Amino acid sequence: MGHSAAVWDQKAAIEVTKDWNGIDQVVLRSPRGASARVSLHGGQVVSWKNDRGEELLFTSSKAIFKPPKAMRGGIPICFPQFGNCGSLEQHGFARNKIWAFDDNPSPLHFNDSKGKSSIDLILKPSEEDLKCWPHSFEFRLRVSLTADGDLTMISRIRNINGKPFSFSFAYHTYFSVSDISEVRIEGLETLDYLDNLCQRERFTEQGDAITFEFEVDRVYLSSPNVVAVLDHGKKQTFVIKKEGLPDVVVWNPWEKKSKSIVDLGDEEYKQMLCVDGAAIEKPITLKPGEEWTGRLDLSVVPSSYCSEHL
Fold first, then answer.
1. Does the annotation place 90 within a ligand binding site?
2. For all residues of the chain together, what is the average pLDDT?
């Protein structure tokens, strides 16, 4: 008997395809028609669409889809570092590796598994990786799409080394916006932030919401676990909920910087905004056998609904 459209079939909600480099991609679908696409290149969510089929994540028209180059857009995973320091490539190596399907995912207790489609991936260091970053780890990633079309990412990083190691981390989420001048972020007011445009000097946020009129590259510290990105042009709000991720990165390259970024169109900064759940200021340290979990839940709601309920 074939799949009946009336019955929501969990297996039919997950489809594995290949991109044009022959790398597996997994498409998750919700009963109402929302979808998410996850590439095994980087464990990266490369698309997230609402139930009307509208793309919610930004991808540059000039993005380079070829390993080992990370793709500009979607949700790259920055591990074991964010930014540039030491011998590792910018934002670490996890976003440039080919991940594997995790055949042995540990059970995670979801309150609601009904109508939820999930995929479990795993990254372990290669011999090459251990030369640049000599720490044995297992990085398990679960990406889920709920029945309502919300996107959940859960990263669990375990130290299987004989000695402690430290890392920083970010879900470097590129949101698609109508126009950057129409966007504001709520939930980061009065917080301290490190300004990457001023040698990471520490400032305190003065505005009652963050709006954009120039390049912004900041790490907001000890942030609340719910942050909202309000897009007046689209009359919709992204709600970002996070656990285990104390910091929030806010980045928009603006006009001048955009022109120097090879894989970003000169005007594309107007349609994108990065707001990342992250752990940067105080790196995570794991003793042998210890595990860290960082969770991100993304949803999108009509703006009128959001301001009342946040």
1. yes
2. 89
